[in-house]
Specification:
Keywords: ATP-binding, Nucleotide-binding, Transport
Strand content: 15-25%
Structural class: alpha/beta
GO molecular function, one term: ATP binding
Bound molecules: adenosine-5'-triphosphate
CATH class of the largest domain: Alpha Beta
Protein name: ABC transporter ATP-binding protein
InterPro entries: AAA+_ATPase (IPR003593), ABC_AA/LPS_Transport (IPR051120), ABC_transporter-like_ATP-bd (IPR003439), ABC_transporter-like_CS (IPR017871)
CATH superfamily of the largest domain: P-loop containing nucleotide triphosphate hydrolases
Helix content: 25-40%
Shape: globular
Strand order of the largest sheet: 6-7-8-3-9-10
Domain ABC transporter: 5-246
CATH topology of the largest domain: Rossmann fold
């Protein structure tokens, strides 16, 4: 049995169109894998198959050797697979600290949260302090989310997701919409994620990808074109054509 997430022969089609075609991926503890590819390549579909939002037509998905296909989305989160909260799910009128507390309640189950003992509330506050520190958000804990810069809001999303104590984290375009002057905030936060967390990063910003990924998967038309270390991917003619092709043919 191998530790972490294993995907074997994953297949998904919508109508007659195959959007995930025999995909094999390993995300061991500590992995930093980026999934790149042109628009419509199937990156979001792949992440939805992992989170349980979509059901595959064929293939296996295991976490620490356990088949997770029968689990729904909420149970996969409980099992340790989390995708970042989206900015649209942040409570903008609440403080950063309140948002992290809500994520902890989500994790612990709302019903049980009402009956929590005082010491377990204190424990949650300590966890919130730890996440605020990990994301360098200590000074912003009592600020309303709506008063934060966009890049900082994206850090709050990540901190909230970490409150779920995931073992596998899917970062869905973590730098999208963040002004380039602030993108280092996102890159730095990804570099400081816990060492034993398995991280899959779906991202169009190649600067970020090449800085944080140790392995890059290139997806084209639902198939893995190639996977390798960043220097191998950067040197791959097929990948260069994919990203520079349009310019070649200008
Ligand atoms: N619910 C759906 N029904 C039918 N087709 C779908 C559905 N969701 C996605 N598709 C199609 O599947 C293909 C892959 O889409 P997907 O969103 O996974 O690509 P992507 O790589 O994430 O693209 P982007 O980089 O633009 O986000 C596209 O051709 C898309 O139109």
């Amino acid at each position: 049995m191998s530790a972490g997430l294993q995907v074997r022969g994953l297949q998904k089609s919508f109508g007659g169109i195959i959007v995930a075609d025999d995909i094999n991926v390993d995300l061991a503890p500590g992995a930093r894998v980026a999934l790149i590819g042109p628009n419509g390549a199937g990156k979001t579909t792949f992440s939805s198959l992992i989170t349980g939002k979509l059901t595959p037509n064929a293939g296996e998905i295991t976490l620490d050797g356990q088949d997770i296909r029968p689990l729904g989305e909420a149970d996969r989160v409980k099992a340790g697979i989390a995708k970042t909260f989206q900015i649209t799910t942040l409570f903008r009128d609440l403080t950063v600290r309140d948002n992290l507390r809500l994520a902890a309640q989500e994790r612990d189950g709302r019903a049980r949260a009402w009956f929590k003992r005082a010491d377990s509330w204190a424990e949650v506050e300590r966890e919130i302090d730890a996440q605020l520190a990990a994301f360098r958000l200590e000074a912003l804990g009592d600020k309303r989310v709506s008063d934060l810069a966009y890049g900082q809001q994206r850090l709050v999303e990540m901190a909230m997701t970490l409150m779920l104590k995931p073992r596998v984290l899917i970062l869905d375009e973590p730098a999208a919409g963040v002004p380039s002057s602030d993108s280092h905030l996102i890159t730095d936060a990804i570099e400081r994620l816990p060492d034993d967390l398995a991280v899959l990063i779906i991202e169009h910003d190649m600067k970020l990808v090449f800085r944080v990924a140790r392995s890059i998967i290139v997806l084209v038309n639902g198939r893995i074109l190639t996977q390798g270390a960043p220097n191998e991917i950067a040197a791959d003619e097929r990948v260069r054509d994919l990203y520079l092709g349009a310019r070649h043919h200008d």
